[in-house]
Amino acid sequence: MDVKALDLGEDNSLLLVDDDEPFLKRLAKAMEKRGFSVETAGSVVAGKAISTARPPAYAVIDLRLEDGNGLDVVETLRERRPDSRIVVLTGYGAIATAVAAVKIGATDYLSKPADANDIINALLQTGDELPPPPENPMSADRVRWEHIQRIYELCDRNVSETARRLNMHRRTLQRILAKRSPK
């Protein structure tokens, strides 16, 4: 696939924050090919330090990092540079938190795995027009699994309370939680 550089304007600075090093390196390389000036961070502490010292025009921040919550980086960046375009990446069971990220200042959020094109579409989206539908939307099984994970997290990972709220047998819920997420 031929990758062309985008017209990003005067400030093409991009901060990538993720603790998955192979993913971080691949994404940084893909974004550099598209014309971004990329800085990477593997932790909340490093992300906040870069956001404070050199607040970028664009940021892609993982929600769950080994040393804390990516929302802390979003807040720091939003304070230092209110016009920054921020996309939050979220893994399993964290869509409710991603919505919270949008409320505190993220431009958008994407479920992992997200490719460079999906991320660029979210970063460069302007106005109220809706972004194009994803090339690979979540399956119905995945949407169900995400919903169950969200309720489970909101119930402080209490299986009995989650089962009650979902009107589901506790053993059935335990079997679902023990399985890997569907594609």
From TrEMBL:
- Quick check: keyword Cytoplasm in the entry? no
Q: Which residues carry this modification: 4-aspartylphosphate?
A: 62
Annotated Response regulatory domain ranges read 13-127
> Example GO biological process term?
phosphorelay signal transduction system
Could you tell me one molecular function GO term of this UniProt entry?
A: DNA binding
User: In terms of domain of life, where is this protein from?
Assistant: Bacteria
Where would one find the signal peptide in this protein?
A: none
Which key words are in the record? Answer: Activator, DNA-binding, Phosphoprotein, Transcription, Transcription regulation, Two-component regulatory system
NCBIfam families xrefs: ActR_PrrA_rreg (NF033791)
Task: Please explain the role this protein plays, according to its UniProt record.
Answer: Member of the two-component regulatory system RegB/RegA. Involved in transactivating anaerobic expression of the photosynthetic apparatus. It is a transcriptional regulator that is responsible for activating expression of the puf, puh, and puc operons in response to a decrease in oxygen tension.
Q: PANTHER family, per this entry?
A: PROTEIN PILG (PTHR44591:SF14), STRESS RESPONSE REGULATOR PROTEIN 1 (PTHR44591)
The name this protein goes by in its record: Photosynthetic apparatus regulatory protein RegA
Provenance organism: Marivivens niveibacter
Query: Taxonomy-wise, where does this protein's organism fall, top ranks first?
Result: Bacteria, Pseudomonadati, Pseudomonadota, Alphaproteobacteria, Rhodobacterales
